[in-house]
Design a protein that fits this description.
- Pfam families: HIT.
- This is Histidine triad protein.
- It comes from Haloarcula japonica (strain ATCC 49778 / DSM 6131 / JCM 7785 / NBRC 101032 / NCIMB 13157 / TR-1).
- One of its GO terms (molecular function) is catalytic activity.
- The protein has a 5-stranded antiparallel beta sheet with strand order 1-2-3-5-4, covered by helices on one side.
- It has a single domain, classed as HIT-like (HIT family, subunit A), CATH 3.30.428.
- It has 3 helices and 5 strands, in the order H-E-E-E-H-E-E-H.
- It is globular and about 50 Å long.
- It is an alpha+beta fold and 142 residues long.
- It starts with 5 loop residues before the first helix and ends with a helix.
């Protein structure tokens, strides 16, 4: 628990939230500044700043909850689709340093864009550079 974290304060009940799901590990609530009707955040109750800092079992519980909630959120607001995403670190746009997955219901002509529209200056990588990145990622897992 982090005293400075708004999400930890919601978990503790110090700040009200519109809870849509709760168990011993995970809390899900409506975003106070929604991108669309039904925009829901799914967080671990324990404070972890990034996915990289989150124990595998807790990350799995968050993902399982996202999996279960996506159809419920879409149905509740009559959305034909949703964007499910994490901003993992400040440079990625994470505004609250507590792991949180977003369920953003999407509607036809909502002005939203696909994930590939996040970055406008895409790198031009050669096959050799892609091969090196592939090897580095595999090596990091060893």
């Amino acid at each position: 628990m982090s005293e400075d974290c708004i999400f930890c304060q919601i978990v503790a009940g110090d700040i009200p939230g519109r809870t849509v799901y709760e168990d011993d590990t995970v809390l899900a609530f409506l975003d106070a500044n929604p991108l669309s009707p039904g925009h829901t955040l799914v967080i671990p109750k324990a404070h972890h700043e990034r996915l990289n800092d989150t124990p595998a079992d807790v990350a799995g519980a968050v993902m399982s909850t996202l999996y279960e909630l996506v159809p419920a959120v879409e149905s509740a607001v009559d959305a034909p689709a949703s964007t499910v995403a994490f901003n993992n670190g400040e440079e990625a746009g994470q505004e609250v340093p507590h792991v949180h997955g977003h369920i953003v219901p999407r509607f036809e002509d909502d002005g939203g864009r696909p994930i590939h529209a996040l970055v406008t200056d895409r790198p031009e990588l050669s096959d050799a550079e892609l091969d090196a990145i592939e090897s580095d990622i595999v090596a990091e897992q060893a």
